[in-house]
Write a structure and sequence with these properties.
The complex is a heterodimer of chains A (287) and B (759). Chain A is of the alpha+beta class and 287 residues long. Chain A contains 12 helices and 13 strands. In chain B, the strands form 9 sheets. In chain B, strands 4-8-2-15-12-13-14 form a 7-stranded mixed sheet, sandwiched between helices. A 6-stranded mixed sheet of chain B has the order 10-19-18-17-11-34. Chain B is globular. Classes of the chains: A alpha+beta (287), B alpha+beta (759). Chains A and B meet through β11 and α12 of A and α16 of B.
Chain lengths: 287, 759
C-alpha cells in the first residue's frame, strides 16, 4: 500500500499550499458525509488536507449588508448567537441537519462542497443568491451558488481549490425554511424549501431542495408572487395568488422516484411547503 | 491480552429481591462506553475475517477463482463451500441454508467466500480480488407467485401451510366486514452489528465468543458444519448489542470457526451496518385478507383469513412464525368458528425469521383493523365491541385449546381505555408532525385516537420441549449461578440474582459467564421465555440447594427442616432457637444442577387444532396521533398501555421493556421498512432505514400492569418482552386512520399513503 499524506492546515495559505502539492487531495472538515463514504469503501484517496484547525475558516463577520460565513462554520454555530436573527432560514435549515453530534461537526463549507441535492443549506443559499469564495495557491475567485453547484454531487471546485467562505445578504423581510422527512428529526430531506422576502428589493425568492439535481429557483413563481404583493403596505397576497404561487413552485420541481419518496409526492409536497412558507411570511393571507 | 475474558456479573450490597427495582449492572457501562461488546473482543494474535457476498438475488455460480485473493499480502485463508468439512447447510428448523453458497445464490448478500488476513484492509483487498463468475437468473420476488413458480431450492417454495378450521364452518354473520392488509419488512435494527471472535483450541476444537440468543443450538449447528463433536465447539456469550430475534440464526458463527481452524489463529469478524442488513433475518412481510362475521349485538361469530408471509430465500424459523400468525390471527377474542389459512413461502427476497412478536405483530395489525371496521359497521364503540368479545380464562382459542392459565384481557383493555389522557395540542412546531422540519402549523393538524389489543404465546409451542438448565453452588455464604441464558438486554442478569437472593436469603450472588462449556442448554432468549424458563431453572436450583442445606443443618441440630428459614445471610429456626451464619455452614459447598421443563404441548393437527401453547400474554395500547394530512406526516403524541404480566419481578426493567417494545411498534407503524425492489434492499443503512428518535417516540403511559400470578411460572411472572411490540403498531395505525378517515392498508403508513390518497 502506498504512503498517505495528511496535512493539518493552520491557515488557508497552508491548506492551499498543501493542495497545490497534492491537487487530488481530499479536503476534510467535519467529516460527517465524507467519512461515511470512506468507511463504506466508496471514497478512496491518497492524501488528506484537514481543515478543522484553520481558524480563519471558523467564524463569521458582517461586511456592510453582507454576512461572510466561514466555510468551517458548523451547523450548531449557524443556529447560535446573532446569526438566527440575521439569516433565519440558514439557522432553521441547520437545525434540521442530523443529531446534535453531527451539527457540532458538520460544516457549511462541507455541505456546499458535497453539493448533494438533499444538502439542507443549499436551498437557503440559492434563495439568498449567496456567493461562494474560493481560494487556491493561484488566487481567489467568487462564484454565485447557482454557478458553483453544477449537478448531483458535482460542482465547479477546481483541483487545488477550497471553499473559503460563503457570502449571504442581510435582507429586510421574513425567511422560512421547511423540510419534509419521514422522521421528525435526524432525517435526510425528501423535499425542502427556503423562502426569503426582500422588501427593499420588492421580491420573494425561493430555493427548492431534493426536487432536482441542483438547488432550484422557481423563477415563474417568484415573478408571479412579487407582482401580487402590495409592497407599500406589505399586505398579504390573496387566495388565488397563493394558490397559483404554490402551483408554479410545484410545476418547477423536477423530482425523481427513489427510496425516500416518489416524484409525485415530492411535487405535491413542495407545493404545500410553498403555500405554508408564503403564508408564514405574509400572515393574515388567505388560507 | 492473549486470553479472552468475559467478566462475571457480581453484586454484594444489600441487593434487590423479587419485586424490587434492580438496576442493570451493565446499564451505566453501556451508556458511558465502558461495556465490552462482542465487537470489542481482542486477541493479540488474531486475524480479521471478512465475507464475500452475492451481488445478485438469484444466480448460478459458474466458477470461483480465489487465486488473486490468496496472493494479496497478509492474507492467511480464502475459503469457499468446498472448504466446509461437515454439513454444508444449517438452519433453525431445516438445514436448508448453505454455510457458503456452492453453485447457486438465492438472495442478495448471500455469503459466497470468506477471508482471513492480518489487517481489515487486506481483507477488503482480498474480497475484491476474488473472481466469481455468476450467471444471473430472474429472481422470484412475488410471494404470491412462489407456489406456482419453479422451485428455487431443492426443498421447494412452500415452507409451511397451516389450514386452521374451528367450529361450525357454515356460520354466516348478520354483519360481515372484509379487509386486506399489508405489512412491510421490519428490521430488528439492533445497534451492535454481528461480531465475534473464534479461537482455535489445542484439542482440535474451537472456542467461539459471540453475541447470540441461544448458545447451545448455535453450537450444535456450528459443530455439524465443522464436522466436529459438539463438545469440541464451545460458545461463550460476548457482550450483546441488542437482538430482537435477529441473532437466532447463525450469521458469522461457522465462518469464524472455519477460518480459525484453518489458519490456527484467532479470527475476529465484525459486520458493517450495511452488511448487517444482509446478514440477518427480518420480520416477515405479510399480505392478509380477513372476513369477520358478527351478530347485530356485536358478538363475533366467525373469522376467515388468508395470511401469506414472505419467508425469503431460506426457512429460518418461518414455520413457527406462520404457526403463530395463524393461531393468533383473530386476536384475543372468543370466536366459535374460524377458517384461517396461513402460508409462508420461499422467494429470492432477503430471508425472514424471528423478530419480537413473532407472527403476532402482523396479524394484530389485521385483526385490530377488522375490529374497528366491524365497530363502524355496527355503529358501536370500538372498546365496547372488544369488551363484549374478549377472551377469559376457561375460554377456547381457535386452536380448540382451553386457556387454563390467567387471561385478564378485560382488565387489560378496560384499564388502558379508561386511563386519562394528558395530551394537549402543542404550539411548538418541533412537537407537531414534521418536527424539526417545521412543516406544520397547528391549523394543519388533525388528531386521532384509537385502541388496540393483542396477544401471543409465551415459550415455545407445538410439542417443543425448550427446557432450561441452571447450576447453583452455595459456598462460604456466596451463591454462584451458572446458566447459559443469553443476556441480550431482557434483564436475566438482574432477575437471576434477585431470584437467588429471594430463595437463599443471601446478598452475594455471582452469575458466571454464559457458556456451552459449563452447563446445559438454557434454550433461546426469545418467545418471552427466559424469565419463566431460565428464571424457573434458577429458582429450582436454588430451592434444591436450600432443601439440601436445611436438611443437613436440621439433622445436625436435631430440628425439623420445615422449621428452618434462610434470610439475611443466616439460617434461622422459626422458633428462634437457632441462628447460624450462612457462611459457617457452607464451607462445604452445596450444589444443585437442574433442568426445568414447562408443561408439555402438542403439535397442531391437520385442522390446526391442538393444545399447542403453554401460556399467553395480553396487552393493550391506546395511541393519540397528530397528522398533517397535506404532507402525510405523523407525530405520535401519546401511547398508553396496560399489560398482563403475571407478576412484576423488577419494576424498573418492566417499564424498560414496555417502553422499548412500544418504540419498535411505533417504528413499524410510521417508518420502519426494509425496502426491497427486485430482490435488492434499497435502504441498508441507518441513513435510510429509519427508527424513531426522541422526537418520534412519545411518553409511554403505563395505565396498569395486571398482576394475576400465572400457574407454573416462577413467582407467577409471565414474560413481558413481546406484547409491547404487538398492540402498539396496530394502535398507532388505527389512530392515523381515525385522524384521516383513510383505510391505510399498508403498514408502515407512508407519507404518500396519506398525502396522495385518492390522487
Amino acid at each position: 500500500m502506498e504512503a498517505m499524506s495528511v496535512t493539518f492546515a493552520r491557515t488557508v495559505d497552508d491548506a492551499c499550499a498543501a493542495l497545490a502539492e497534492h491537487p487530488g487531495a481530499l479536503l476534510l472538515a467535519g467529516g460527517t458525509d465524507l467519512m461515511v463514504g470512506v468507511n463504506r469503501g466508496q471514497v478512496r484517496f491518497a492524501d488528506v488536507v484537514v481543515l478543522d484547525r484553520v481558524d480563519e475558516l471558523r467564524g463569521w463577520r458582517r461586511e456592510g449588508d453582507e454576512i461572510v460565513l466561514g466555510a468551517g462554520l458548523t451547523y450548531a454555530e449557524m443556529g447560535r448567537g446573532e446569526l438566527p436573527a440575521l439569516v433565519p432560514a440558514l439557522a432553521q435549515a441547520s437545525r434540521t441537519v442530523g443529531s446534535p453530534q453531527i451539527r457540532n461537526a458538520g460544516t457549511l463549507g462541507g455541505n456546499v462542497a458535497t453539493s448533494s441535492p438533499a444538502g439542507d443549506t443549499l436551498p437557503v443559499l440559492a434563495a439568498l443568491d449567496a456567493t461562494i469564495d474560493l481560494r487556491s495557491a493561484q488566487g481567489a475567485r467568487r462564484l454565485a451558488i447557482g454557478e458553483f453547484v453544477t449537478g448531483v454531487k458535482q460542482n465547479a471546485l477546481e483541483p487545488g481549490e477550497l471553499i473559503e467562505a460563503v457570502r449571504v445578504p442581510v435582507l429586510d423581510g421574513p425567511q422560512e425554511f421547511l423540510k419534509v422527512g419521514t422522521r421528525n428529526a435526524m432525517v435526510i430531506s425528501v423535499v425542502s424549501l427556503a423562502l426569503v422576502v426582500d422588501r427593499s428589493g420588492r421580491n420573494v425568492r425561493v430555493g427548492l431542495g431534493s426536487v432536482s439535481p441542483v438547488p432550484l429557483r422557481p423563477a415563474d413563481a417568484e415573478a408571479h408572487i412579487a407582482g401580487c404583493i402590495d409592497w407599500d403596505t406589505g399586505s398579504a397576497p390573496d387566495a388565488a395568488a397563493v394558490h397559483r404561487f404554490a402551483a408554479l413552485v410545484a410545476g418547477a420541481a423536477r423530482p425523481i422516484d427513489d427510496h425516500r419518496g416518489t416524484a409525485a409526492y415530492r411535487s405535491h409536497a413542495v407545493g404545500v411547503l410553498a403555500r405554508r412558507a408564503l403564508l408564514r411570511a405574509f400572515p393574515g393571507g388567505a388560507s | 491480552m492473549t486470553d479472552v475474558r468475559i467478566d462475571e456479573t457480581r453484586t454484594s450490597e444489600r441487593a434487590p429481591r423479587i419485586g424490587e427495582s434492580a438496576p442493570r449492572p451493565d446499564g451505566i457501562p453501556k451508556v458511558d462506553g465502558s461495556f465490552t461488546f462482542s465487537s470489542d473482543l481482542w486477541h493479540d494474535r488474531m486475524l480479521w475475517g471478512g465475507t464475500l457476498r452475492s451481488p445478485h438475488p438469484s444466480a448460478r455460480i459458474r466458477s470461483i477463482d480465489i487465486g488473486p485473493a490468496v496472493a494479496v499480502t497478509g492474507v492467511h485463508a480464502v475459503l469457499t463451500a468446498a472448504d466446509v468439512p461437515g454439513n454444508p447447510a444449517y438452519g433453525l428448523e431445516h438445514a436448508d441454508q448453505p454455510v457458503l453458497a456452492a453453485d447457486v445464490v438465492r438472495y442478495e448478500g448471500e455469503p459466497v467466500a470468506i477471508v482471513a488476513a492480518d489487517h481489515p484492509e487486506a481483507v477488503r483487498l482480498a474480497l475484491e480480488a476474488i473472481v466469481v463468475d455468476y450467471e444471473s437468473t430472474v429472481p422470484l420476488v412475488d410471494p404470491g407467485a412462489a407456489e406456482s413458480s419453479d422451485p428455487i431450492h431443492p426443498d421447494g417454495n412452500l415452507i409451511r401451510r397451516i389450514h386452521l378450521r374451528h367450529g361450525d364452518q357454515d356460520v354466516v354473520g348478520e354483519v360481515v366486514v372484509e379487509g386486506t392488509y399489508e405489512v412491510g419488512m421490519q428490521d430488528q435494527a439492533f445497534l451492535g452489528p454481528e461480531s465475534g471472535l473464534a479461537v482455535p483450541a489445542e484439542d482440535g476444537g474451537v472456542d467461539l465468543f459471540i453475541a447470540t440468543q441461544w448458545l447451545h443450538v448455535d453450537r450444535d449447528q456450528v459443530a455439524a458444519c465443522l464436522g466436529l463433536a459438539p463438545e469440541l465447539v464451545r460458545l461463550t456469550l460476548a457482550g450483546v448489542g441488542g437482538a430482537f430475534g435477529a441473532r437466532e440464526d447463525l450469521s458469522l458463527h461457522a465462518h469464524l470457526c472455519l477460518l480459525a481452524l484453518h489458519t490456527r489463529r484467532p479470527v475476529k469478524m465484525v459486520y458493517s451496518r450495511e452488511e448487517s442488513f444482509h446478514g440477518h433475518v427480518h420480520r416477515h412481510p405479510a399480505r392478509m385478507w380477513y372476513r369477520h362475521h358478527a351478530d347485530r349485538a356485536g358478538n363475533l361469530l366467525r373469522v376467515e383469513a388468508r395470511l401469506l408471509l414472505d419467508g425469503g430465500a431460506y426457512a429460518s424459523s418461518s414455520g413457527a412464525v406462520i404457526a403463530n400468525a395463524t393461531c393468533f390471527a383473530a386476536g384475543p377474542y372468543r370466536i366459535p368458528s374460524a377458517d384461517i389459512e396461513g402460508v409462508v413461502v420461499r422467494t429470492n427476497n432477503p430471508p425472514c425469521g424471528a423478530m419480537r412478536g413473532f407472527g403476532a405483530v402482523q396479524t394484530c395489525i389485521g385483526h385490530e383493523a377488522q375490529m374497528d371496521r366491524l365497530a363502524a359497521a355496527l355503529d358501536m364503540d370500538p372498546v365496547e365491541l372488544r369488551m363484549r368479545n374478549v377472551l377469559a380464562s376457561g375460554d377456547r382459542l381457535l386452536t380448540g385449546q382451553v386457556i387454563t392459565g390467567t387471561a385478564p384481557v378485560a382488565e387489560v383493555l378496560r384499564t388502558c381505555a379508561d386511563h386519562p389522557s394528558a395530551a394537549a395540542l402543542s404550539e411548538d412546531p418541533m412537537s407537531l408532525p414534521g418536527g424539526a422540519g417545521r412543516t406544520a402549523d397547528p391549523e394543519h393538524v388533525h388528531r386521532g385516537e384509537a385502541i388496540a389489543l393483542g396477544f401471543k404465546n409465551l415459550l415455545f409451542s407445538e410439542g417443543f420441549d425448550d427446557f432450561s438448565s441452571a447450576l447453583c453452588r452455595l459456598e462460604d455464604g456466596i451463591a454462584t449461578i451458572t446458566c447459559a441464558c443469553a443476556e441480550v438486554g431482557q434483564g436475566f442478569v438482574t432477575l437471576a440474582q434477585q431470584i437467588t437472593r429471594e430463595v437463599l436469603g443471601v446478598d452475594d450472588v455471582v452469575l458466571t459467564p454464559a457458556s456451552t462449556a459449563t452447563v446445559g442448554s438454557a434454550g433461546s432468549t426469545s418467545a418471552s421465555r427466559q424469565t419463566w424458563m431460565s428464571g424457573g431453572a434458577v429458582q429450582a436450583a436454588c430451592e434444591e440447594v436450600r432443601t439440601t442445606l436445611l436438611t443437613r443443618v436440621a439433622a445436625e441440630h436435631g430440628v425439623d427442616p420445615d422449621e428452618l428459614v434462610m434470610a439475611d445471610g443466616r439460617v434461622m429456626s422459626l422458633a428462634g432457637a437457632l441462628d447460624i451464619d450462612l457462611a459457617s455452614v457452607t464451607t462445604e459447598p452445596v450444589e444443585a444442577d437442574v433442568e426445568f421443563h414447562h408443561a408439555p404441548t402438542s403439535p397442531l393437527d391437520e385442522y390446526g387444532q391442538g393444545d399447542a401453547h403453554v401460556s399467553f400474554a395480553f396487552s393493550a395500547h391506546r395511541a393519540i396521533v397528530d397528522v398533517d394530512r397535506d404532507l402525510g406526516l405523523v407525530k405520535v403524541v401519546e401511547l398508553t398501555t396496560s399489560q398482563d404480566v403475571g407478576r412484576v419481578l423488577n419494576p424498573l426493567q418492566a417499564v424498560g421493556q414496555l417502553e422499548g417494545g412500544a418504540a419498535q411498534g411505533v417504528g413499524l407503524a410510521v417508518m420502519e421498512e426494509v425496502q426491497v425492489l427486485d430482490g435488492r434492499i434499497r435502504n441498508a443503512s441507518f441513513t435510510d432505514y429509519l427508527v424513531p428518535t426522541a422526537l418520534d417516540m412519545p411518553p409511554v403511559e403505563i395505565a396498569a400492569l395486571i398482576e394475576e400470578p400465572e400457574p407454573g411460572a416462577p413467582f407467577g411472572a409471565k414474560g413481558i418482552g413481546e406484547p409491547p411490540s404487538i398492540s402498539s403498531t396496530a394502535a398507532v395505525v388505527a389512530a392515523i386512520r381515525a385522524a384521516t378517515d383513510l383505510e391505510l392498508a399498508h403498514v408502515p403508513v407512508r407519507p404518500t399513503d396519506i398525502a396522495l390518497a385518492g390522487a
